[in-house]
Design a protein that fits this description.
The chain contains two helices and seven strands, in the order βαββββαββ. The chain has a four-stranded antiparallel sheet, with no helix packed on it. A three-stranded antiparallel sheet has the order 5-6-7. With 162 residues, it is mostly beta strands.
Length: 162
């Protein structure tokens, strides 16, 4: 596992081959090339979240790791939470902790977008792009809850050589 040793690692993600585009397509009657590693999304749990900008060496936003079957794991990308507190954020709260945004899934999209293409999701839990008061059914007077629409993305990620 990655050296930080913290967070939740989701392994139902994607494995890929380091091969040429021609060998990735394969040939009739030929087995596909062997897989050489995994892409794993890391989502720091609430006990491993730190304030944005923390200097703690364990502080990190959500990340995507490449874990080869042989060799050392490496971070491929990190979730950028810089939109939190920006002009599209309507929650009126301070910027959320690093790790409050999740990289919650990755899928091999090379069949549609070419070698090294993956679709990855980001759930931006502290970025509210719309909110409205809920109903008032119980005392004390006022809304009993808030409707919210969080930010997030389905992104196309190109990782050369993967």
């Amino acid at each position: 596992m990655p050296a930080c040793g913290r967070g939740v690692y989701r392994a139902g993600v994607s494995a890929w081959k380091r091969t040429t585009p021609e060998s990735r397509r394969g040939a009739p009657g030929r087995a596909p090339p062997p897989r050489t590693g995994l892409l794993l999304t890391e989502d720091p749990g609430s006990s491993q979240q730190f304030p944005a900008g923390s200097t703690d060496p364990n502080a990190t936003p959500a990340r995507l790791w490449h874990v080869p079957f042989s060799g050392a794991p490496e971070v491929v990308v990190k979730v950028d939470q810089s939109a939190d507190g920006g002009p599209t954020d309507v929650d009126g709260r301070p910027v959320g902790n690093w790790g409050a945004w999740e990289s919650s899934g990755i899928v091999d999209a090379s069949a549609a977008f070419g070698p090294g293409a993956f679709l990855i999701t980001v759930q931006a839990h502290t970025l509210w792009v719309e909110k409205a008061d809920g109903e008032d059914n119980f005392a004390p007077p006022g809304p009993d809850f808030t409707y919210k629409r969080e930010g997030g993305q389905l992104a196309l990620l190109q990782i050369p050589g993967m």
